[in-house]
Design brief:
The chain has seven helices and seven strands. It has 176 residues and is an alpha/beta fold.
Amino acid sequence: AMLLPVTVEGRENIDKNQSYVFVANHQGFFDIFLIFGFLKRDIKWLMKWQIGKWPFIGRSAVKGGHIIVDRRSRAAIKKTYDNARRTLQGGTCLCIFPEGSRTYDGTMGSFKRGAFVLADELQLPVVPLTINGSFNVMPRTCKGLIHWHPLHLTIHAPIYPESQGVENQQRLSDES
């Protein structure tokens, strides 16, 4: 609807019959629309618990099978991991922003471990996604204003587990 030009490269890197843990940089609000609209995979999201509180969006996300990440207690963290495990074991892909939240300045932040722990535990490949341009369209600090800017989504080659454990988790994170 915004008539933003979108370029996607790397679709040949993914197999439609394989479950993946997709990890993407989080530039801005349009990242979600870009991935949902152009990845062409059935995916579920891991999203912050605060989003679950938003009227309409939170309820729709939960009804749609997306996973609310709640790190406020050990029991909540366990529930989040259990839900993510069930989703991935059921053959659906999961998309995670390992930085945890959108960037304030356009630079990539450090990764949290969750995506890589799940991929390691279930021995699933991690597919890095690189998003470019979303920060220019609607950065975190824009107060709702949308700016015209081209968007680019790169689907990188899957990174397959080579072992299991902390070293494999770190390798998956480092190579992403």
